[in-house]
Design goal:
Blueprint (H helix, E strand, L loop, with lengths): L5 E2 L5 H16 L5 E10 L11 E2 L1 E14 L4 E6 L8 E4 L13 H12 L8 E7 L9 H16 L8 H18 L7 H8 L4 E6 L5 E5 L7 E7 L10 H16 L4 H9 L5 H6 L4 H25 L7 H13 L6 H12 L4 E5 L6 E7 L3 H15 L5 E4 L7 E2 L2
The protein binds alpha-D-galactopyranose.
Alpha-D-galactopyranose binds next to helix 5.
């Protein structure tokens, strides 16, 4: 692998558990009740579709967040993070957590406890917890969802619940984590990230139908097709809370209202079934911005359905053009790409990737590229070189075989 290329290795679970336990003992003394791990995610395709009731298709990363937790007898919540060794512990009182009452990184954990308690899914006390994570932060790989989901499985178990034991129960935990993120952390995201972190299965991609809530675990074994999935963390700024994400979301809602449909998913279904032509739908929106946003959502839902067909048929070597088309649509119509993301996908394709696209919310963050197995070092080196030439900060790379969702690991 090329000189200077930085790889973001994932911790084996034993190492993550050891980090979390050691950190817990140093912060609180004694042993935690257990250690729970939840993965970050990459989305293969279906971007910005979740909050439009559309289809999306994430997998869980080998990179996880590890939470060592021990219940308390009172309702205090005290959190310490390995990522912030010099900061004071994050503290709150469970009964006092609510929209607008807490701020900072602990909202992802405390908000999950609050949402579970509000939904009758957690009747327990406060707790002490230590967090250690190898999910790259700020990379668009859902480190915040991983934190929420590690808390969800931990609190379900310690509260005597059994939601984590079935997909139906996990879907309820997903909703609690989404409430934590929307109402307590204040990020108006959809549910894709939490679904991936809680529901994903090893060796499979998770097809999510955000209208019906239906999920399908579709086998996703790139290796057997001589391919691998390369994640490129551009290190460029990624912020979901700076208003751009919320503005895309409200533009979609506005477009749906003008079209007289509940969500753009209904428009996508009408186009897919031939009831409406895409041009007809777009003609009914006279605002050029709404036209572009709507075109992205409708075509992206279509691409995601096609992608699922290719995966079900085992035709993995044909997915490249769909990834490329998704990127172009996100760049030109949805306008959520960034120079670094565009440079990463161009350099990856020039170095032999079958297809490449930005993944996640955008405005920086990460891209993915499907590359022939064995060429990942070469492709990473080419992207690294292109970034140096463009004067961008050096990117970092990870390999992303599809992993299992959140669970107790120690
Ligand atoms: C972020 C959000 C998700 C989803 C993606 C875009 O990751 O958290 O809910 O909307 O952006 O697909």
């Amino acid at each position: 692998m090329s000189d200077g290329v930085r790889w973001l290795g994932a911790w084996p679970h034993t190492q993550g558990a050891a980090h979390a336990r050691t950190g817990f003992a140093a912060a609180f003394g004694g042993e935690p009740s257990g250690v729970w791990a939840a993965p970050g995610r990459v989305n293969l395709i279906g971007e910005h579709t979740d909050y439009n009731n559309g289809l999306c298709f994430p997998t869980a990363l080998p990179h996880s967040t590890y939470l060592a937790l021990r219940p308390r007898t009172d309702d205090a919540i005290t959190l310490v993070s390995a990522q912030m060794p010099r900061s004071a512990p994050w503290t709150a009182t469970l009964n006092a957590v609510g929209p607008g009452t807490v701020a900072g990184w602990g909202t992802y954990v405390a908000g999950t406890a609050w949402a579970m308690a509000a939904g009758g899914a957690y009747g327990g006390s406060g707790f002490d917890a230590f967090v250690a994570s190898c999910v790259p932060g700020g990379a668009g790989l859902s480190s915040s969802a991983a934190l929420e989901c590690s808390a969800a499985v931990a609190l379900d178990e310690l509260g005597g619940g059994s939601l984590r034991q079935t997909d139906e129960g996990r879907a309820i935990l997903v909703q609690c984590c989404v409430r934590a993120e929307n109402e307590i952390a204040g990020a108006p995201t959809g549910g894709m990230d939490q679904s991936a972190s809680l529901l994903a299965r090893a060796g499979h991609a998770l097809l999510l139908d955000c209208l019906t809530g239906a999920t399908e675990h579709v086998p996703f074994d790139l290796t057997s097709s001589g391919l691998t999935l390369l994640v490129i963390d551009t290190r460029a700024h990624h912020a979901l809370v700076d208003g751009q994400y919320a503005s895309r979301r409200s533009q979609c809602e506005q477009a749906a209202r003008r079209l007289g449909v509940e969500s753009l998913r209904q428009a996508a279904d009408a186009v897919a079934s031939g009831t409406w032509a895409l041009s007809e739908v777009l003609d009914r929106l006279d605002d050029p911005v709404l036209i572009r946003r709507t075109r992205h959502i409708i075509t992206e839902i279509g691409r995601t359905a096609q992608f699922a067909e290719l995966l079900r048929a085992g035709r993995l070597d044909e997915i490249g053009p769909l990834l490329d088309a998704s990127h172009a649509s996100l760049r030109d119509d949805y306008e959520v790409s960034a120079r670094e993301l565009d440079a990463a996908v161009v350099a990856a394709r020039e170095a032999g990737a079958l297809g490449a696209r930005m993944t996640g919310g955008g405005f920086g963050g990460s891209a993915i590229a499907v590359v022939p197995l064995g060429t990942e070092g070469h492709v990473a080196g080419a992207v690294h070189g292109a970034f140096a030439t463009a004067g961008f900060e050096p990117p970092a790379f990870a390999l992303a075989p599809p992993m299992q969702g959140a669970a107790r690991i120690a």
